Amino acid sequence: MRLTPPRLKRRGAVLVEMAIVLPVLILLILAAFDTAAGVYRYQQVATLAREGARYASVHAGMYAQEQNTTVPTADQIRVAALVPRAVNMDPTLMTCTLTWVNGTTLPWSVTGDMGLRKVNNVRYKVSYDWKSLFLLGTTITLTSTSEMAISY
Questions:
Q1: 53 pLDDT band (50/70/90 cuts)?
Q2: Torsion of Cα atoms, 10 then 16 then 20 then 22, to 10°
Q3: Distance in angstroms (rounded) separating the CA atoms of residues 133 and 31
Q4: Does residue 7 contact residue 94 with C-beta atoms inside 8 Å?
Q5: Average pLDDT of the segment spanning 50-75
Q6: How does residue 7 score in pLDDT terms, banded at 50, 70 and 90?
Q7: Opening angle at CA 143, ends 138 and 144, nearest 5
Q8: 110 vs 124 pLDDT, higher one
Q9: Is 106:120 a contact under the CB 8 Å cutoff?
Q10: C-alpha distances in angstroms, 6 versus 2, 12, 57?
């Protein structure tokens, strides 16, 4: 005596289901990889902006006077500090701007003394044109800005 119904033959059902699900799954996986690559590139641009601001803050002011050199420009900073650190990035797609911010007031809690102190800051902005593979080569401009006090 048989209690279970006889098996129906469904030889092509798995193939049809796979043909529907597999392209969608591959598309989602490629989108995840491309998004991760974009986040990585943005983190790299943010790191380069911080490095550019750090380089400008250290190589300006008293350093330039003591070394008898000129204050570095945005392109000099890009060549000296950013291009060696721009791993797998095309330097021709990177644009940098340097802005000197004079007279920023810091409260005593930051400076350690009991009054307000004016410091000169440097602001460095890095923009990079990243091409997304998932969006069929669409260019996305990744931008990051960093500001630091001139420390030397």
A1: very high
A2: 90
A3: 9
A4: no
A5: 89
A6: low
A7: 155
A8: 124
A9: no
A10: 9, 18, 80
